[in-house]
Every structure is written in structure tokens, then in C-alpha cells.
Amino acid sequence: MASTSRGRAQDRAKVAGGQDHEVRYEAKKESVSKETVKKAVKSAGNSRKKVEAEIGRH
């Protein structure tokens, strides 16, 4: 697992809905809007797999 400049572990299996760059990345990857990603994070939680599954359902 990679670490940040502050020495914290990064968890790439999660989507931080409050981080614009992560929402933008996921939106571009799934070809959906940023709002769709934010709604998916809110309803499914921040697990990347669950968010992608939620986006795929719509």
C-alpha cells in the first residue's frame, strides 16, 4: 500500500466523495457526471467496488 507525504497509508479501494480529484477521476473512468459519482458514494458508501456497482445499476 502506498503512503502519502505525511506517512499515512492510502487506500485505493475507497472513493473519497469530498475529494474533487477522486470524484473527477471516477466520473471520467465510468463516463458519468461528478454528481452521479457523489450520489453513488452517498448511497453505497465509499468502497470503490460498491460505487462502481451502484453506477452500473443506473
Describe the structure.
The protein has 58 residues and is mainly alpha-helical. Helices cover 55% and strands 0% of the residues. The chain contains 3 helices and no strands. The chain has helices spanning 20-30, 34-44, 48-57. Helix 1 (20-30) crosses helix 2 and helix 2 (34-44) packs across helix 3. It starts with 19 loop residues before the first helix and ends with a helix. The model has no long low-confidence stretch (mean pLDDT 90).
Query: How many extended strands?
Result: 0
Low-confidence stretches: none
Category from helices, strands and their pairing? mainly alpha
Largest sheet: none
Cα distance, first to last residue?
Answer: 31 Å
Count helical runs: 3
Helical fraction equals: 55-70%
Following the backbone from N to C, one meets helices and strands in this order, namely HHH
Query: In angstroms, what is the radius of gyration?
Result: 12 Å
In round numbers, the mean pLDDT is 90
Shape: elongated
Percentage of residues in DSSP E strands: under 5%
